[in-house]
Design a protein that fits this description.
The complex is a heterodimer of chains A (315) and B (383). Chain A is built from twelve helices and four strands, in the order H-H-H-H-E-H-E-E-H-H-H-H-E-H-H-H. Chain A has helices at 3-34, 41-58, 69-96, 105-126, 135-138, 154-176, 178-188, 190-195, 200-226, 233-248, 253-277, 287-301, and strands at 131-132, 144-147, 150-153, 228-229. In chain A, strands 1-4 form a two-stranded antiparallel sheet. In chain A, strands 2-3 form a two-stranded antiparallel ribbon. In chain A, a hairpin with a 2-residue loop joins strand 2 (144-147) and strand 3 (150-153). In chain A, helix 6 (154-176) crosses helix 7 (178-188). Chain A is globular. Chain B is of the alpha/beta class and 383 residues long. In chain B, 42% of the residues lie in helices and 17% in strands. In chain B, the strands form three sheets. A seven-stranded mixed beta sheet of chain B has the order 7-6-8-9-10-13-14, with helices on both faces. In chain B, strands 2-1-3-4-5 form a five-stranded parallel beta sheet, sandwiched between helices. Chain B has a two-stranded antiparallel sheet with strand order 11-12. The N and C termini of chain B lie far apart (71 Å). Classes of the chains: A mainly alpha (315), B alpha/beta (383). The interface between A and B is large, with 42 and 36 residues.
């Protein structure tokens, strides 16, 4: 057993999984309340990555930042969260709210349209060139934890810690606050919640704001730890985030967190071991095959996901 | 029956006469004004101006613009450029190729910059008799068996690059364990396979890995790189990807260095602490004899961030413009004539020996790739 490799794959899987978990949370929150698949969610992450890149450039760039590195990262994440939060609210207001009473296929198509709209808007604004955060100039890759087989760049720790903090924060918000109670009530029965005096529209807007803000933060974290960003990056992260939400149980917040980490680890392990397990027949190029095979298996064997509850209807 | 045969023969003769009249040059020599009018045509550019390899296309178009301006000034011609952005996507390249082919003002295409663009447009350009001269498409199969008769390239192909890299890796770097990574595209797969085969034949232990051209994280691939691996050869068209790979190797404490193939050549984007990269044309910035042309280019652009991609495309443009100008000696020209003249041309070159093509459209004599060592992000030629 190559322990160095195993440890490293766990680190990689957790980093990637943290990002997927943040995306999955947004999917789950919106689905929980509106029963809508917000297919534009991955593109919100992409916008967040570009906002972070803009803030980085505005504050002097990675090579010569005009503020302390920690402050720079905090500002990048915060501005991206606020920007993406408002983007999410705008998407809800103009693309989904008018279709709230339409057949379920209509908002789904609208979501696809929004996804293409965002992607092409960024293409128009920034061009299709890959942009780089060059975070290695902010913090050298050798700065971090180096302990036996464990080599972790400090920015990976930042990504994991901030994703965990956001997930815990969201969990507290949903379970311990008035807004969280309103969100749960709306998710349980929108009409009953309205009759109880809950401003459902307001709750939905806040849900979109929070979910999109998390995606914005995820975008910055991706840029920081993996370096490159581009206008179509949202598709891949959106797809993996959606998979994570389904595996964890769409609509469930702990499910989204678990699903994200599970998919991240599955992806890392499949890249690392697929060749060994298939005796060289399949290479690392087929890692996505494993990820989506997991999705198919879950859909067949446990469609409600790990933390989800079966949809029981009274007759 | 006999009358019919005579009629057919006469018709064939008449057609041949018409075609000959159309193609053959009258003996008259055009005045400078007629040449200027005749060369009031366009060169099409087919390359990735945006997308993952946008850096490459931007450099090429910048040098091509410089070349067109310089050629017009020196020769009294009036060439213009029509830009076509492939975004490094084959379907987009075909759409752009169709637009260029249907534009009657376009008499030659500079590109495709990437091999996959040549593959999807090669037959189209052949059908429309449009000479396409590339300054960077290096895949061997583009000329093997002459599949696209109007395609030419001013740079050596991967049949030269593969052996050079494997010789350098095994002999100069004395590597015993190598990982070769492809990016699952038409450019990198054959090149990576050729390097893998060659290294194994030399007794080097080689593992193969694959990434997608869109991937931005290689940390799990890097986890597969053993501590005994000396070199990771990355066949990619995305310089930022090669840079990320190099950073992630360092992050995981791996001592292997990255050897990037020509697509990774970018002093501004691929800046490993320690690595190598090969390229099909010398980077003129390292050649004192090229100081004049580099100086002229720097006057033309505000900021020179170019490497080796631009000058080769400048050369491709120069070949095409020289052929069109020659074709305009009688005051008129067409695509068939231009393609014919490109095929037989000998054009002085800024990147090496005069450019002449063999029967397949390759550089006569094969040419050589140049290998650069990169230390702390700084490039220096090795051979």
């Amino acid at each position: 057993m190559d322990w160095d490799k195993l440890v490293q794959l766990i680190v990689n899987g957790l980093t990637l999984g943290s990002v997927y978990a943040l995306v999955a949370l947004g999917f789950s929150m919106v689905y929980g309340i509106l029963k809508l698949l917000n297919l534009a969610h991955g593109d919100v992450l992409m916008v967040g990555a570009f906002i972070g890149w803009g803030v980085l450039g505005w504050l002097g760039g990675a090579q010569d930042p005009s503020v302390a590195v920690w402050l720079l990262i905090v500002l990048m994440v915060l501005v991206a969260m606020v920007g993406c939060g408002f983007l999410g609210v705008a998407i809800e207001r103009f693309a989904y709210r008018p279709l709230r009473r339409a057949p379920r296929i209509a908002p789904l198509i609208s979501a696809l349209g929004v996804s293409f709209f965002i992607q092409n808007s960024v293409l128009l604004l920034f061009g299709a060139n890959f942009r780089s955060y060059e975070a290695i100039d902010l913090v050298d890759v050798e700065v971090g934890i180096h302990w036996g087989p464990l080599n972790v760049w400090i920015l990976r720790v930042v990504v994991f810690a901030s994703a965990a903090a956001m997930m815990i924060g969201l969990w507290i918000l949903v379970t311990r606050t008035k807004l969280g109670k309103a969100m749960r009530a709306t998710a349980f029965d929108r009409e009953a919640a309205a009759m109880m005096g809950i401003d459902v529209d307001r709750v939905i807007v806040k849900t979109f704001f929070i979910g999109s803000a998390l995606a914005g933060a995820a975008g910055v974290l991706v840029g920081l730890v993996f370096g490159q960003i581009n206008h179509f990056m949202g598709f891949n992260y959106g797809l993996k985030g959606f998979t994570a939400a389904v595996v964890g149980g769409i609509g469930s917040i702990p499910g989204a967190m678990f699903g994200g980490l599970f998919i991240g680890l599955a992806e890392a392990f499949s890249v690392g071991y697929i060749e060994d397990f298939t005796r060289g027949r399949l290479g690392s190029a087929f890692s996505d095959l494993v990820v989506f095979l997991i999705l198919v298996l879950f859909m067949l064997l446990r469609p409600q996901g790990i933390f989800g509850k079966p949809d029981v209807k009274k007759v | 029956m006999r009358k019919g045969m005579i009629a057919v023969a006469l018709a064939v003769l008449a057609s041949a006469a018409v075609v000959t009249a159309a193609v053959a040059k009258p003996s008259a020599t055009a005045t400078p004004a007629q040449v200027a009018t005749c060369t009031n045509v366009s060169l099409g550019f087919l390359g990735p101006l945006t997308g993952p390899a946008g850096f490459l296309g931007q450099e090429q178009i910048s040098w091509l613009k410089f070349g067109v301006q310089k050629y017009n000034k020196e020769n009294g011609t009036r060439f213009a450029l029509v830009e076509g952005d492939t975004q490094l996507k084959a379907p987009v390249a075909l759409t752009v190729g169709r637009k260029l082919a249907s534009n009657s003002k376009v008499l030659a295409v500079i590109g495709g910059s990437e091999s996959q663009a040549v593959r999807v447009t090669g037959n189209l350009f052949e059908r429309t008799s449009l000479a396409n001269v590339s300054g960077s498409a290096t895949a061997v199969d583009l000329t093997k068996g002459r599949p696209y008769r109007s395609f030419f390239r001013v740079v050596p192909n991967d049949g030269v690059q593969g052996p050079q890299i494997l010789n350098f890796v095994s002999t100069n770097l004395k590597a015993k364990n190598v990982v070769v990574i492809d990016s699952q595209d038409d450019y990198s797969l054959p090149l990576a396979s050729a390097i893998t085969r060659g290294l194994r034949a030399k007794g080097v232990t080689v593992s193969r890995e694959s990434v997608s051209a869109d991937d931005t994280d290689f940390s799990s691939i890097v986890a597969n790189v053993g501590s005994n691996v000396n070199v990771v050869v990355f066949a990619t068209q995305v310089a930022t990807a090669a840079n990320t790979l190099s950073n992630q190797l360092r992050e995981q404490g791996k001592r292997a260095t990255v050897f990037g193939t020509d697509g990774a050549y970018s002093p501004s984007q691929f800046k490993p602490r320690n690595g190598h990269v090969s390229i099909f044309a010398p980077d003129l910035h390292f050649d004192p004899k090229a100081a004049k042309i580099i100086g002229e280019y720097r006057k033309f652009v505000k900021k020179d961030t170019s490497g080796a991609f631009g000058p080769a495309t400048y050369q491709a443009g120069w070949v095409a413009m020289s052929a069109i100008r020659k074709a305009c000696a009688d005051g008129r020209t067409n695509r068939v004539e231009v393609t014919k003249l490109v095929r037989s041309s000998t054009t002085p070159s800024i990147i090496g020996a005069p450019t002449r093509f063999d029967a397949k459209g390759d550089l006569r004599g094969g040419g050589q790739f140049t290998i650069y060592r990169i230390t702390n992000g700084k490039y220096s030629p090795v051979r």
